[in-house]
Automatic annotation (TrEMBL):
<keyword id="KW-0285">Flavoprotein</keyword>
<dbReference type="GO" id="GO:0016709">
    <property type="term" value="F:oxidoreductase activity, acting on paired donors, with incorporation or reduction of molecular oxygen, NAD(P)H as one donor, and incorporation of one atom of oxygen"/>
</dbReference>
<dbReference type="InterPro" id="IPR050641">
    <property type="entry name" value="RIFMO-like"/>
</dbReference>
<dbReference type="Pfam" id="PF21274">
    <property type="entry name" value="Rng_hyd_C"/>
</dbReference>
<dbReference type="GO" id="GO:0071949">
    <property type="term" value="F:FAD binding"/>
</dbReference>
<dbReference type="InterPro" id="IPR002938">
    <property type="entry name" value="FAD-bd"/>
</dbReference>
<feature type="domain" description="FAD-binding">
    <location>
        <begin position="3"/>
        <end position="345"/>
    </location>
</feature>
<comment type="similarity">
    <text>Belongs to the PheA/TfdB FAD monooxygenase family.</text>
</comment>
<dbReference type="InterPro" id="IPR036188">
    <property type="entry name" value="FAD/NAD-bd_sf"/>
</dbReference>
<protein>
    <submittedName>
        <fullName>FAD-dependent oxidoreductase</fullName>
    </submittedName>
</protein>
<keyword id="KW-0274">FAD</keyword>
<dbReference type="InterPro" id="IPR036249">
    <property type="entry name" value="Thioredoxin-like_sf"/>
</dbReference>
<dbReference type="Pfam" id="PF01494">
    <property type="entry name" value="FAD_binding_3"/>
</dbReference>
Length: 511
C-alpha cells in the first residue's frame, strides 16, 4: 500500500506547476524541497505566451499580469551617451486566438511564490522545505523513497515519483539516465539581483564592448520590485568574487562612469552555460521533468517555460492513471515531451552560439518557436485526426482561444470553457448537439461538451472560433480538447464510434 500517490522532488517552477495541477484534481501528493526556504533570484524571468496560457488555465494569470511587466526597450550606452535603442522582440497586439502574444517579465522567485499560493488555494499539501530526497527504489507497484529532514530519515512509499529536482538532479543520476550535451566552461556570466542608484527604470540598460556586438554589463529593471537583474559575461579562467563590491567594480569598468551605484544585492550567482538533455523521461514509475530533463542556455528564455510545459503534460496523465485509466497513457509523456525538449534545446543553442559568435542579430528573439505556441504533438500517440478534409489546425495542435458569446449573449472565450482539469468536447454545428450531450453524460467526471452554433450554448457571432479552428461557415467538425489544451481527437461526427473508441482507449474506466 502506498502512503501517497505522487512524490514531487523539487519545488521550482516545474514541481510547483505539477503540484498545482495534481492538487486541483484531488490527487494526494507530497512536494519536498531540499532548500530550507524559497529560492531567491530572478533567474527565469521571461514567461513565454504558452506558459501564460497554462497560468491562465491554473487561474493565476491575473496575478501574473499584476505582478510582472512587459519587456522594456533596450538602451545601449557608451559612457554617458546613448548609442542605440531597440527591442529584442517587436510588441504584438493580442489577437482573438492568442490573448497573450508577448513574453511577460516576472522574476522567478515571484512566479514560484504565486504557484505556492495557488497550491495552498487548491488545498494541496504545502512545500516541505528542508527535506531532501536521498535515494529510492522502485518495484512494480510503487517507489520506496528516503527523505531526510533535519538529519532524520523517513521512508515513504509512493505510487509515482517525479524528479523536478533541477539540472543536478539526484533522481536522474539514481536512475542512471544519460544527460548528453555540452558544458561551456568558458561561457560564464555573473548574474545578480541588485538595487541601483543613478539609473532610470524605463529601459534595459546595456554597455556594449567598444568594438564588438556583445555587451559588458546589462541592468534590466525587474517589474514589481525595486531591483535590476545585473548580467556580465566573465572572461578568462579566474573565478570572480560574488560580492556587491566586485559587481560595482565590473560595472564601473564597463561604463566608465562613477554615478551609478549598486546599493544592495539579494542574489549573486556565476552562471555557466550548459546545454544538455536526457535520453529518457521515464523509468518505470519515476519521471523526470524540467531542468532535471533538459538544461538550456538562458538565451531565448526557454528553460523555465519548457519545465512548466513538461509538468502540464504529465499532470493530467498521472491523475487519469491513478483514477483507473490504462497505465500506457503515461508512455505518451516521454513520446510527446522528449522531441519537444530536443527542438527547444536546438533553438536555445542556436541563440547561444549567435551571442558567443557576436552575430548582429544575436539580441533578437523573433523566432515564433520561442513563444511555444506552435508546439504540436501531431503524429504522437494521442493525436487522432479522423476528418476527411481537415484544415490546417490538426489533432495534436494547441487548441486556440476565440472570443464568442454564451447563449444569453454574454461574452465567453473558448479558454473559459477549457479552464480546469476536464476534457472539452467542442462541436461546430447544431447537428452534433445530441451526440455531444451523450458523450458528456457517459463521462461526467471527464468531459464537458459544448456546441458552437447559433442555437448552441456557444455562439460564434464574429466567426473567430471557426477561423481559429479552420472550420468554414456551414461546415461541421467535432474536436476533443485535452486537459492540457491540445486537440486530442478531431472528427466529422461524434456518432460513428471513433470518438468513443479514442476516449475508451485513453481514459476508459475514469468515468
Ligand atoms: C541566470 C539564469 C537565467 C535564466 N533565465 C531564464 C529565462 O529567461 N527564461 C527561462 O525560461 N529560464 C531561464 N533560466 C532557467 C530557469 O531558471 C530554469 O529552467 C528553471 O528554474 C527550471 O525549473 P525547475 O523547477 O525544473 O528546476 P529548479 O528551479 O532548479 O528547481 C529544482 C529544485 O529542486 C531542489 N532539489 C534538488 N535536489 C533535491 C533533492 N534531492 N531533494 C529535494 N529537493 C531537491 C532544488 O533545491 C531546487 O529548488 C535561467 C536560469 C538562470 C540560472
Amino acid at each position: 500500500m502506498n502512503d501517497v500517490a505522487v512524490l514531487i522532488v523539487g519545488a521550482g517552477p516545474t514541481g510547483l506547476t505539477l503540484a498545482c495541477d495534481l492538487a486541483r484534481r484531488g490527487v494526494a501528493c507530497r512536494i519536498v524541497e531540499r532548500s530550507g526556504s524559497p529560492a531567491v533570484g530572478s533567474r527565469g524571468r521571461g514567461l513565454q505566451p504558452r506558459t501564460q496560457e497554462v497560468f491562465d488555465d491554473l487561474g493565476i494569470i491575473e496575478r501574473v499580469r499584476a505582478a510582472g511587466g512587459d519587456y522594456p526597450d533596450i538602451r545601449a550606452h557608451r559612457g554617458e551617451d546613448v548609442v542605440w535603442e531597440g527591442r529584442m522582440i517587436e510588441h504584438r497586439e493580442p489577437t482573438p486566438d492568442v490573448p497573450h502574444p508577448n513574453p511577460w517579465m516576472l522574476p522567478q522567485w515571484r512566479t514560484t511564490q504565486l504557484l505556492r499560493d495557488r497550491l495552498a488555494e487548491f488545498g494541496g499539501s504545502h512545500v516541505e522545505f528542508g527535506t531532501e530526497l536521498t535515494g529510492f527504489e522502485q518495484d512494480a507497484d510503487g517507489v520506496l523513497a528516503t527523505l531526510v529532514h533535519d538529519g532524520v530519515p523517513e521512508l515513504v512509499r509512493v505510487g509515482y515519483l517525479v524528479g523536478a529536482d533541477g539540472g543536478h538532479s539526484a533522481v536522474r543520476r539514481t536512475l542512471g539516465v544519460g544527460f548528453e550535451g555540452e558544458t561551456f566552461d568558458t561561457h560564464r556570466m555573473l548574474v545578480a539581483d541588485v538595487t541601483v542608484d543613478g539609473l532610470s527604470r524605463s529601459h534595459w540598460h546595456v554597455w556594449p564592448e567598444t568594438e564588438s556586438r556583445t555587451f559588458r554589463v546589462g541592468l534590466c529593471p525587474l517589474p514589481g520590485t525595486d531591483s535590476f537583474q545585473f548580467t556580465a559575461p566573465v572572461h578568462g579562467e579566474a573565478t570572480p568574487e560574488l560580492t556587491l563590491a566586485a559587481l560595482q567594480k565590473t560595472l564601473d569598468a564597463a561604463t566608465g562612469r562613477t554615478d551609478i551605484t549598486l546599493l544592495d544585492s539579494s542574489w549573486i550567482t556565476l552562471f555557466r552555460a550548459n546545454i544538455r538533455m536526457v535520453d529518457r523521461y521515464r523509468v518505470g514509475r519515476v519521471f523526470l521533468a524540467g531542468d532535471a530533463a533538459h538544461v538550456h542556455s538562458p538565451a531565448g528564455g526557454q528553460g523555465l517555460n519548457t519545465g512548466v510545459q513538461d509538468a502540464y503534460n504529465l499532470g493530467w496523465k498521472l491523475a487519469a492513471v491513478l483514477a483507473g485509466a490504462p497505465a500506457e497513457l503515461l508512455d505518451s509523456y516521454e513520446a510527446e515531451r522528449l522531441p519537444v525538449a530536443a527542438a527547444v534545446l536546438g533553438i536555445s543553442s542556436t541563440l547561444h552560439h549567435k551571442a558567443v559568435n557576436r552575430e548582429p542579430d544575436a539580441h533578437r528573439r523573433d523566432d515564433p518557436a520561442l513563444q511555444q505556441l506552435g508546439l504540436t504533438y501531431r503524429g504522437g500517440p494521442l493525436a487522432r485526426e479522423e476528418r476527411a478534409e481537415p484544415g490546417s489546425v490538426l489533432a495534436g495542435d494547441r487548441a486556440p482561444d476565440a472570443p464568442c458569446l454564451a447563449a444569453d449573449g454574454s461574452p465567453l472565450r473558448l479558454f473559459d470553457l477549457f479552464r480546469g482539469p476536464h476534457f472539452t468536447l467542442l462541436a461546430f454545428g447544431s447537428r452534433h448537439a445530441d451526440a455531444v450531450a451523450e458523450v458528456a453524460a457517459r463521462h461526467p467526471k471527464l468531459v464537458r461538451g459544448h456546441v458552437i452554433a447559433p442555437s448552441g450554448d456557444v455562439v460564434d457571432a464574429e466567426g473567430h472560433a471557426g477561423r481559429a479552428y479552420c472550420v468554414a461557415p456551414g461546415t461541421s467538425a467535432v474536436l476533443l480538447i485535452r486537459p492540457d489544451g491540445y486537440i486530442g481527437w478531431a472528427g466529422d461526427t461524434a456518432t460513428d464510434g471513433r470518438l468513443d473508441a479514442y476516449l475508451d482507449g485513453l481514459v476508459s474506466s475514469v468515468g
